[in-house]
Please model this.
Amino acid sequence: MSSTTNTPTHHTSTIGSIGAPSRRNTELALLIFAVAIPVFAYANVGLALNDQVPAGLLGYGLGLGLLAGVAHLAVRKFAPYADPLLLPLATLLNGLGLVAIWRLDQSKRLQAMHAAGDKATNQLIYTALGIALFVVVLIFLKDHRTLQRYTYISMVVALFLLLLPLVPGLGADVYGAKIWIQIGSFTIQPGEFAKIVLAVFFAGYLMVKRDALALASRRFMGLYLPRGRDLGPILVVWFISILILVFETDLGTSLLFFGMFVIMLYVATERTSWIVFGLLMSAAGAVGVASFEPHVQTRVQAWLDPMGEFKASRSGIQDGIIHSEQAMQALWAFGSGGTLGTGWGQGHSELIGFAANSDFILATYGEELGLAGIMAILLIYGLVAERGVRTALAARDPFGKLLAIGLSGAFALQVFVVAGGVMGLIPLTGMTMPFLAYGGSSVIANWALIGILIRISDTARRPAPTPAANPDAEMTQIVRPGTTGPDPQ
Amino acid sequence: MSELTLTVMRLGFLAVLWLFVIVAVQVIRSDLFGTRVTQRGARREAQRPQAAARQQSAPPQQRGQRGQRAQQSGGGRQRRNAPSKLVVTEGTLAGTTVALQGQTITLGRAHDSTIVLDDDYASSRHARIYPDRDGQWIVEDLGSTNGTYLDRSRLTTPTPVPLGGAIRIGKTVIELRK
Model:
């Protein structure tokens, strides 16, 4: 309602709908901008490291431009009313990720550790696969509401994907966290895909159950307490996320799934009490598990005392605990970056060692682009989440609303968990920064996520068809031609 | 590469990155569509001096055009006083107007109503307002629980609505205006 409600007789406001423009040309312009920025950065890295424009500049720029162009044409053809910002924002993040990975590839130190070298080429291939999946989503998912049919199948698939790393012989234990599976020489992180499938399940489930969850409650100390039996689902999801934490020792995945469920529960029921419950339960769960799980303990220890861990690691104390020096190194990287950064290619974030181009890639940006660059990147992530929430607001069906809020909430939560971990706000977790970090599963899954968001936003922003003529009015004219007024029945 | 070039590139990159963010936010600003709220009071005041100036500069032409327009929209003497819009004057929706273009307006709590009433005393399909053959607007109660009132009297049959007559549904009051 407008602000004119208090004096309605003198100030009346008219609310009329404006048709949504398609905005595809805006998207194209932003997309060209979004490809130009990483190309600039790529040239900058080459000039700083080798005093020359890198030889691969043309191929790299054309590759990224081509992929962005294909994605744009697919949106133009299959989702003409979609949000104009999602694709350029994702392209920019992906492009910046490629630059930083290529920049770390140039490091002799990382090459010697076999942690870098040809990762940028791999990442470009993963990006191509991701864009391909994005286009496939746009072509075959004509209406996001078809996903609603697969609510319970999604649940089974998500649980299957989550439990896959625990299968003996298939799961790979990489530096303490068991969230990968190994097929031949490929490692896949099924949790990244489970994120999307689980959002589908939660959206479908909560759409049906939200009235029972929202209305059947008692009020106690300003909070709505849900009935015991309605607590069931949140307890089950909490229990599963605790199981993930215990058996896969991955704090990030478990936090992401539980957080996504609480966000969607809150949006579906409008009850603040769920957030309070969620925070209490996740805190209790995390503290409980940290009390006996050594891998989690190491992470918490590195969070509370990064300098102590760094010293312990350097002095080579053999007490059976892996001491992590990365948390401190990441903080040093941010510190040496300062406000404006050292400039592309002039930092020393390769000193972080392994995972410099995956979990810790944010430290590279922090050092080479400084606070100003990190803020811009976090704002771009924020804009992606904002467009997702905006899509949820505009969506007309409750399933689409919940799915959009779940996907963008998961995206934002993942950024928070990774960035918070690298910056020392929360204990470090084994998750990847969406689009920026090296990793096939992450890039491919996040492109699919953006594809679904674009599909929902296309449906939400599509202008409503003109309403059909009122059959009542026509019928009265035909049935009673003699009367002066329409039939009151 | 000289230090100066690299510094310029470093700051230039940050500037370009922030420019992208700003452009993106501008796109969001221009993307706020969906409903347009026009303040009638403000618009009238803004237009008044303009209209006065126009009348001074070319009075005869202007008056001629205005007469034509009135005839076009009114369609004759009989509909000179026909209401052109429906205004909600009291209740949670106060301030909302709906243009009357010959279509039936349904009122109620049902989501497919033309005016969805958020009013505890309204039925889901409470009343409708429609024009008869002559363009006279009629209000009809659709068997609501708490009734529809025109001024003070509860409606039992479809009743013509006079210009400015108050239709009361629960806490909501609706008027037809020119």
Q: What stands out?
A: The two ends of chain A are 34 Å apart (CA to CA). Residues 145-462 of chain A form one domain. Chain A touches chain B through 62 residues (CB under 8 Å). The CA atoms of residues 199 and 222 of chain A lie 30 Å apart.
